[in-house]
Design a protein that fits this description.
- With 176 residues, the protein is an all-alpha fold.
- It has helices at residues 5-39, 41-44, 52-55, 62-92, 101-135, 147-175.
Length: 176
């Protein structure tokens, strides 16, 4: 039994939807934990996707807590948005004509969003290190690393290949 490309793309679209929904739920749960953390800190750190280490910041300064939790929410929402862009890309992709300007543009947008996730993570890690020095508390990390820089580079390279494929296709259409 031979697996066809359409079936693989359908499977990948399902995986993209699952990842999108998962990160959207994570961002929502972190937002709820942020809000509840201000209202009732004892309950807030027990919520789903709440980082109990960050709740220690409330005893030092509520803005430390708000900034750190907001960064986590932003990263989760950013990741959900990247997966939404992947869903859009897979929905627009036509195997008969895969080399289109729209696909290349979407690939570039995904690459830049991945780069943005990496940059926000770098800033966030610096902020958490500063908070650790300031408060003396161990806060952990944001759970995202340099892999997003690698992913951004790979997707950007694929986007450039698609652009070159479009140029070749247009040259061939003009010479015929």
């Amino acid at each position: 039994m031979k697996i066809r490309t359409e079936q693989i793309l359908t499977f990948l679209k399902i995986v993209a939807w699952l990842a999108f929904v998962g990160y959207a739920i994570k961002a929502g749960a972190q937002t709820v934990a942020l809000v509840v953390g201000f209202i009732n800190p004892e309950l807030g750190d027990k919520l789903y996707e709440a980082n109990p280490l960050l709740f220690k910041l409330l005893k030092y300064n509520s803005s430390y807590f708000a900034n750190a939790m907001s960064m986590l929410v932003f990263l989760s929402a950013f990741k959900a948005h990247v997966w939404y862009l992947v869903i859009q890309l897979l929905s627009k992709l036509r195997l008969q004509t895969p080399f289109s300007r729209d696909i290349a543009k979407r690939l570039e947008k995904i690459a830049f969003e991945l780069l943005g996730i990496w940059l926000v993570n770098i800033v966030g890690m610096g902020y958490l290190k500063w908070l650790e020095k300031t408060t003396g508390e161990q806060l952990g990390d944001l759970g995202v690393g340099d892999e997003f820089l690698l992913f951004a580079a790979i997707v950007y390279i694929v986007a450039q290949i698609f652009k070159r494929g479009i140029e070749l296709k247009e040259e061939n259409e003009l010479t015929v």
